[in-house]
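Summary for the steering committee. The consortium agreed at its last meeting that each partner would contribute one worked example illustrating the joint modelling workflow. Our contribution is presented below. We chose a case with several input lines so that the handling of multiple components could be demonstrated. No manual editing was applied between input and output; the record is shown as generated.
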Amino acid sequence: MSDPALLVLASLAEGDKHGYAMMEDIERFGGIRLGPGTLYGAITRLEERGWIGPVKSRDGRRQPYRITAAGQEHLAEQLATLNRVVKTGLSRLKQA
Amino acid sequence: MKRILWLLIRLYPAWWRHRYGKELEALLEDSGSGSRDVWDLFRAAMEVQMKTWSFARIVTVCGIAGVLLAGLVPLSMRYGRYESTAVLKIPAGDRPIDIVNEAAQTALRSNSLLTIVNDQSLYPRQRQVMPLESVINNVMRPAIQISRAGPGLVAVRFHSVDPSVAQRVTQLLAAKFAGFQVLDPAGPVKNEFVRTRLYHGGLGLLAGILFGTVLTMIFRRRAPIR
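What follows is the complete predicted structure of the assembly.
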């Protein structure tokens, strides 16, 4: 799973986070360090689609984001698809 | 490095910087970004620009960039900007190519060229920084062209930054082709520089347009979220 948008959604599924917190979280659970440009590219696209949104914050420079209901739905669909792929792949590997 | 990263943020469109610029700056501060993020930021900024710009704008900008870059090519050329041509008639014989090759080898011997360089006081700046042999091999020889000019004819060309030098040296080179009849002893000097520049400019424009089209296809075909 290396789609930056999906990684951001998975990170925000845990709770609101700003850019740096997402970067660290993704590195921890996914083993992938998203570059700042890649991360903000994904944030831009996700916000455009209404899958994440900014949360009011006192620190305007470290803006936290929250996953929306539509974003959760999309993430669930994507993860279900991935899950099917993983299960199929693993079972076929066992048979081989 | 920080300064470069900050400058790269300027590559994003103004609307994007207004919305996300401060956040991205904070992220760069917090994450201790360095050289590894230069390409990432550049690519991401270009991706946002490509999605914001119209196809016509991308192609126009790439085309102009191509013309500007290609315009620099003639400036870096070793040979000069003016070209003079002499046309010679090849003496009768079984193998005209061999006759021309043999005569050219004699005419373009280092000693022969050395005489021309000294007599005409050619390449004074280059002679100060490199040996005469290098001047002849690396500067003078690339400025000489010998090619077919039609049935039984051969053209001798010389390029120089000075039109009168181009003409004079062409005449001297032509005279060294023993046994060849000189039909045109070095005609009017053509401004090779303008022609070359136009040629490269045209190529640059085409390359720029092609590059812009490919760039648009790459960035726009990438679905943001699958």
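The mean pLDDT of chain B is 83. Strands of chain B lie at 82-89, 144-150, 153-160, 181-184, 190-191.
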